[in-house]
Amino acid sequence: MITSTANQQIKNLVQLQKKGKARKDQDVFIAEGLKMYQEAPQDKIVRTYISESFLKNPENSSIKGLKDAEVLEDRIFDYVSDTKTPQGIMCIVRQRHDKIEDILKEEKPLIMILENLQDPGNLGTIIRTAEGAGVTGIIMSSQTVDIYNPKTIRSTMGSVYRVPCVRSEDIYADIDKIKEAGVRVYAAHLKGKSSYTEEYYSEGTAFLIGNEGNGLSREMAEKADKYILIPMCGRVESLNAAVASTILMFEARRQRN
Amino acid sequence: MITSTANQQIKNLVQLQKKGKARKDQDVFIAEGLKMYQEAPQDKIVRTYISESFLKNPENSSIKGLKDAEVLEDRIFDYVSDTKTPQGIMCIVRQRHDKIEDILKEEKPLIMILENLQDPGNLGTIIRTAEGAGVTGIIMSSQTVDIYNPKTIRSTMGSVYRVPCVRSEDIYADIDKIKEAGVRVYAAHLKGKSSYTEEYYSEGTAFLIGNEGNGLSREMAEKADKYILIPMCGRVESLNAAVASTILMFEARRQRN
After folding, report:
1. A23, A95 Cβ separation under 8 angstroms
2. Membrane-spanning regions, if any (chains A, B) (predicted)?
3. Beta-strand relationship, A89-94 and A45-51
């Protein structure tokens, strides 16, 4: 049992929780909580950590794969946890390496392209909602918040294991690739003349979603084949990025069903 | 200029930021940031506070209504602010007192009924999205997170001033009132047999949305006229409460347009 914060593994867990660079260098991330542990692909789990209380709780005796888990004194587990009320289980999981080519292999893909999203919860919620809406994959500009941020991971509720996500080094070139594959690219934009409900998304479709504060950059918006508008009542000028994404993804799903 | 955290007004601001009870007793809440200040109904603003830097910034000289604003030393403003990067302006605003009867006065109302939502950001996002979707009003069970929580206020982006919101003391009796007014009540529920896209929401419509962790309680779900399902792909079991609300509100809006 690990009983000290000076332990090398504990120091490393803290680094992995806090630093995107440490996660990138080691090519892993931390998934916390029972659901995140149980949904993780077994062959991607590097190491599992449980608290002493978690180990001693008879309700947990039927959980699989824990025989090699490292046990941490409760206060040590709390120390490395990113949550206020830790469930007592976390694991180090290998990062995915999805490629745009894999996403474009699908027939009539449905793709979300995110520009510089900054809120980890928003990104996680979009990934979770995307799985629910049957999105083929998500492409993010290089300045988007780290998908492996603990808050993002938590908000995905496990969808991070299943939705192909690509961090693009050259988003403009990648959008060109997507267009060359016959996918029509729509930008949710205040300049849109037609409502999002007036277009057809049954063929290959991609939606461009902009940053929370500034919306889409001019350069990104210009890559779109068409601007669409989400008509709004009242004095609302814009919607939360995850909300706008939800509306578009589920309209595409509705049309495809 | 206020230069001490021992100042009585500063002590009160801290109470109002942190304690729902203080907000309730004084019947006010705090709205932070320039947008929240500018969109506040003038007759509801009790007092405005700005930082010394905000006062001295020539860009702010054209902002109206600031001649009686209290000026706070920057470090005092930071001390009372609920945000990491304070904009240097906040105001105390009187709470709204909407009634269910006001919401039901509207022809063919579109109503959201929220049961015990716990995440302030979720509640705020729902209020903001509701204004955009043209929702008539929001009714919340008594255990729902405080609408005047600073995080909720911020997430509404000003919609809190405009969307009628009622905290119900007896949610079951209030749902009966809504039904007696001819409004059809739908519950988003896993037991739903028809998809949400197969129903018609052009007449008076209310949607029941459950708590983030547990969904709708059995008692609440039983109040519904009909269960509807948001069909989901992949292994997603449920959606974020704000996301589920968004899908239903904008489907109703789509049908009503």
Report:
1. yes
2. none
3. antiparallel
Beta-strand (E) ranges in A101-204?
A: 110-114, 137-140, 165-167, 184-188, 194-195
CB contacts of B197 in chain A (<8 Å) are: 254, 257
Would the CB atoms of B163 and A234 count as touching at under 8 Å?
yes
CB contact under 8 A, A129 and B163: no
Measure the CA–CA gap between B111 and B61, rounded to whole angstroms. 41
Residue B56's alpha-carbon distances to A175, B31, B32, B52, B71, in angstroms, are 45, 21, 19, 6, 10
Cα separation, B251 vs B197, whole angstroms: 7
Contacts of B162 in chain A (CB under 8 A): 234-235
Give per-residue burial for A38-47: e unless 16+ CB within 10 Å, then b: ebbeeeebee
CB B226 within 8 Å of CB B171: no
Average pLDDT over residues A90-113: 96
Structure tokens at A17: 């929780």
**Mutation for testing the A interface, residue in B233, B248, B251 having most A CBs under 10 Å:** B233
Give which of B201, B249, B251 is closest to B226, Cα–Cα. Answer: B201
| Among chain A residues, CA nearest to B249 | A247
Which pair of tokens denotes residue B125?
């996002």
The Cα B31–Cα B39 span in angstroms is 10
pLDDT in tens, A104-150: 999 999 999 999 999 999 999 999 999 999 999 999 999 999 999 99
How many beta-carbon contacts under 8 Å exist across A and B?
Answer: 104
Domains for chain B: give ranges and CATH numbers: 8-94 (3.30.1330.30), 100-256 (3.40.1280.10)
Measured between alpha carbons, how far is A207 from A173 in angstroms, rounded to an integer? 16
The residue whose two tokens read 């709004």 is A232
- Write out the two tokens for A131: 């799985």
pLDDT along chain B (257 residues), means of 10: 96 97 98 96 97 96 93 97 95 96 96 97 97 98 96 96 97 97 94 93 97 91 96 94 98 95
